[in-house]
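notes to self, project folder thing:

trying the whole complex as one job this time. last attempt i did each chain seperately and stitching them together was a nightmare. two parts in total, labels are on each line so i dont mix them up again. if this works i'll redo the older ones the same way
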Amino acid sequence: MTAEITPIKTAAESGLAAAFAALRGRLPDGAVAARREAAFRRFEAQGLPHRRVEEWKYTDLRVLMRDAKPLAGAPDAGARARAKAAGGVFAMIGARRVVFVDGAFAPELSDLAALEPGLKISSLADALSRGDPPPLPPLRAGEGRETERLAAAGPAAGDVAYELNTAFMGDGAIVEVGAGAEIARPLHLVFFYGAQRSAAVFSRSLVIVGAGAGLTLLESHEGPDGVDYQVNTALDLVVGDGGRLNRIKVNAEGGEALHLATLSATIGAKANVSDFAFLTGGLVVRNQLFVRCAGAGTTLALGGASLLKGRQHGDTTLLVDHAAGGCEGRELFKSVLDGASRGVFQGKIIVRPGAQKTDSRMMTRALLLSEDAEADNKPELEIFADDVQCGHGATSGALDENLKFYLMARGIPEKEAEALLIQSFVGEAIEMVPHEGVRDVLMAATLRWLGGRP
Amino acid sequence: MSLPRRRRAKKEAYVSLLEIKNLTVKVDGREILKGLDLVMDRGEVHAIMGPNGSGKSTLAHVLSGKPGYEVTAGEVKFEGRDLLELAPDERAARGIFLAFQYPLEIPGVATMTFLRTAINAQRKARGEAELSTPEFMKRVREHAARLSIDQELLRRPVNVGFSGGEKKRNEILQMALLEPKLAVLDETDSGLDIDALKVVADGVNRLRSPQRAVLVITHYQRLLNHIVPDVVHVLANGRIVRTGGSELALELEAKGYAPYQDEAA
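result (full assembly):
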């Protein structure tokens, strides 16, 4: 006899169910109505994750997400006006801006003129309302066992936040870089929350970098302090053989925001992909990276720097799946935790049978600036091949008093000495970013954060 | 019989650069310095020699304000003012420089940034204007060239990937740029080969001036062949047990510290 226990729905779960029922048929649907339905059912089957769900152990959404906000409406004139300054963090880069306000594409704020040959940019909402085939990784429903079916659907399939995103996705960017096209000018996806009331935004983007093509993708997320809005954003990424993609995401959401972000990436052979997440904003943030190295000989670098204070909660969860051999993976994540903030890192590396000569190194370091700050690290390795090099390391600790003394002995006052050391700690991670201008931007943002320390 | 008023006033006005009286220091509850006395004047080079564990590095650290040292008795005056109440950065701004025995690596902080931050922090503390970029660059280039420090090295993070000799030369470069009134060299000769030792010694000798005092802390006499001190002290078991001229260093080299260790015990 088996007993099925259905936990009582939280306010957020009930809210999401009501919202989904109410919105059925009102979202841009095209060919994805069935996908939305299936995704929502998968969410409903598991509910919001809680601390006994291993992947969400440290980020208990049943507790941290108290309610479901109504879906954001079309942005008003004020929000659109404020959005002009959004993404200013990357102003020095001279990137091509594609702007989303409250989740909706804002063509009048975007720069779509004179696209480089091979570059195509469109909006997800447009594609869906035209009834285009769903710009999502293929899903062969009903085929094979559950795991195989999910595997075919992209590495993030089955994840609660990602499924919710699929159920509610409204708009986002569809970017295609044709085979062999090297796009020199970085592309900047600007996500701006401009409403002054609490609402929820579900944005979904798709970036396809063709074989041998190259792109630098910037992403910024920001919004007002004092509004407890909710963002669920996802990016499906496909990089073809020999493709190059460098992505840098800056999260500067407002101080009350809940931000759930998912990268679902499939990478071909001999590609070169880097992803860097710089986090200072939001109250509860989860940045999850699902990356599958599907082709041999690829170089992958995942990095991040989280600077948290107050009661901020920043979770970085990554799953790197080496399905093909000879790939090199480097992961370096740093967090600086002040106040009563909490930094979470979960990193799982899977090396599939046959993925020989995989060389994977994962390192995570937390710097605790306060007695009340907390760092949680959970590295995991699952290795099914015998000729691989895999390592992981995790450290957490306070500022090095000896280094601080060295600086002070040279005349540098204590606060300034601490700032230099924090800068140097964060700098090691920022060094991973291949684009020099972006490195400067991130160092400047680090200095601004340090300047705001009490 | 009292001294004439004028002379007494003049005598009161004279203040040594550094005056240490009965300095008693505990580390982790253990007494390391046990009533150390030392007076240094401007223009003088003193050497403190002593066996391992005699308290040499403790003295250097206490002078520069390293945390973890408990001063249980005695006083240290620098230019007549209490030094021990000052934070390390304040001491540096007043003109105290410690060349570290083991210079630390600071990944992520470029040497140039470090030098500039240090110079300008000290200038700010003294109410002086910041150095202009060209003036700063000029000074760094000049001093670096004299110490045979490659410009490329200055672009790297502080001491990261530097050889032992490069680290010590970098200490002397900092000393030259910061122009301290009192430089304390803590075992600067350790880990140096003879060529590196000469470069470092030449660097220190160039900085000798009537306005500056240098305290050379060393276990071995060989550095003192190159930086010839005016006064040599023997530190044993937490106290200065003997003071003499530069010839004392040679005597120590020949006879070793054994007699002093016996004496102190």
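what i see at first glance: Chain A touches chain B through 24 residues (CB under 8 Å).
need to look closer tmrw
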